Amino acid sequence: MGGQEEKAGGADQDGVLLRAVASGDTAAMGTLYDRHAGWLHARLTRRCADPEMVREVLQDTFVTVWRSADGHRGQEAGGWLWTIAARRLVDAQRAQERVARFTGSPLEPDSPGGYGSGTAPSAEDRVLAGLEYGDVGTALDRISPELREVLRATVVDGLSTREAALLLGIPEGTVKSRARRARAELRAALAQLPPIPLGGTA
């Protein structure tokens, strides 16, 4: 019981801090950073092996929070912050991919978008990767919007089922069932399309 009360109190404190940040309170911004930078850094590191990119994304995340704290609408601050951080990471990775394509440098085998295992990705995996890295497939457009938003929260933003539920305002069970339905619909849509070619030189 005490743990639930502590958690609720922390959420309330985050809300107070974000309202203060929105009014230009730099001390509140520092407190918010101290409360959340550690776990954000750890989670970003699990998704990106480049420490310099992680540092830049973390900095960019809090710059975004400073500029857009008034956009917080009362949802759990952790999920809101991670959504921002995950999107900044995707932006940074896309920029890195553009540079790699321009210079002709291959992505590292284990980098996002690279398949270091040597196993060719399935068509479904490629569309889901496209959802995160920018090449949204035609099949994805055939999925209903409420299913797409669950994929976006869990694939693009990297949110857990619980975080996605809080972000979208739906029960965790609904997130799970929609994710299963989304993948089933995606497979069905892919079956009606021509094979998706693997990437290569034109």
UniProtKB/TrEMBL annotation:
> InterPro entries in the record, alphabetically?
RNA_pol_sigma-70-like, RNA_pol_sigma-70_dom, RNA_pol_sigma70_r2, RNA_pol_sigma70_r4_t2, RNA_pol_sigma_r2, RNA_pol_sigma_r3/r4-like, WH-like_DNA-bd_sf
User: One MF term in GO for this entry?
Assistant: DNA binding
Look up the domain of life of the source.
Bacteria
Keywords, in A-Z order? Sigma factor, Transcription, Transcription regulation
Limits of the RNA polymerase sigma factor 70 region 4 type domain: 136-186
Q: Name one Pfam family in it.
A: Sigma70_r4_2
The RNA polymerase sigma-70 region domain covers 32-98
- Under what name is this protein listed? RNA polymerase sigma factor
